[in-house]
Amino acid sequence: MVDYQSSVAPYRQVAAILRGKIERGEYEPGQRLPSVNDLVQEYGIARTTAAKTLRLLVTEGLAEMSPGMGFYVKAG
Amino acid sequence: MVDYQSSVAPYRQVAAILRGKIERGEYEPGQRLPSVNDLVQEYGIARTTAAKTLRLLVTEGLAEMSPGMGFYVKAG
DNA sequence: TCACATTTGTACGTATGTATC
DNA sequence: AGATACATACGTACAAATGTG
């Protein structure tokens, strides 16, 4: 769950969590990340917010998007 | 309503009102405070002034801000 | 090939606060 | 005080790709 009392934007909070899991190897390269809907349910955020989280990881070079399939941990 | 004849700055006047409501429990911990726009309409002040009011409460440790969501009464 | 439902991500409109002039 | 641009959120509705039969 995200902390709406925090001054850190929810989409950044969730991104930080996923980033941590990627770095710890809980999500390995090539593996699929949670979908937008998964994040909505897991963290209680809006679809738009969840999508923004995943796009942020793409921007950071940590993930790649495959249309219709979802987001994957980027290799290398 | 604020008193523009007063030597107390409008943003402090409104902050005092909100502070009173928080202390009396009219706004409970975790509850959302009026938005900037709410304050603009309720007290006839400018957006900038209303925002300053809410940020003052944050500075005082009475409230917390969440991007895109608003201000909340701080717990504890 | 062809629907069709499901799953996936996207766009839009509205609301929230911030920063700057 | 007012105007504008920005960042962020929510909910709804939409569009694209998948996979199944």
Q: Could you write a compact summary of the structure shown?
A:
The structure is a homodimer of 76-residue chains. Chain A has 76 residues and is mainly α. Chain A contains three helices and two strands.
List the helices and strands and how they pair.
The structure is a homodimer of 76-residue chains.
Chain A: H1 10-23, H2 36-43, H3 47-59, E1 63-66, E2 70-73
Antiparallel strand pairs in A: 1-2
Helix pairs in contact in A: 1-3, 2-3
The structure holds a DNA duplex (21 and 21 nucleotides).
Question: How would you describe the overall organization of this protein?
Answer:
- The structure is a homodimer.
- Helix content of chain A is about 45%, strand content about 10%.
- With about 80 residues, chain A is mainly alpha-helical.
- The interface between A and B is small, with 7 and 10 residues.
- The structure holds a DNA duplex (21 and 21 nucleotides).
- How is the quaternary structure best described? homodimer
Query: Cα distance, first to last residue of chain A?
Result: 29 Å
Alpha-beta content class of chain A: mainly alpha
Order of helices and strands of chain A: HHHEE
Q: Whole-number radius of gyration of chain A?
A: 12 Å
Strand order of the largest sheet of chain A: 1-2
Please summarize the sheet with the most strands of chain A: 2 strands, antiparallel
Beta-strand content of chain A: 5-15%
Count of distinct strands of chain A: 2
What keywords describe this structure?
homodimer, 76 residues, mainly alpha, two-stranded antiparallel ribbon, 3 helices, globular, DNA-binding
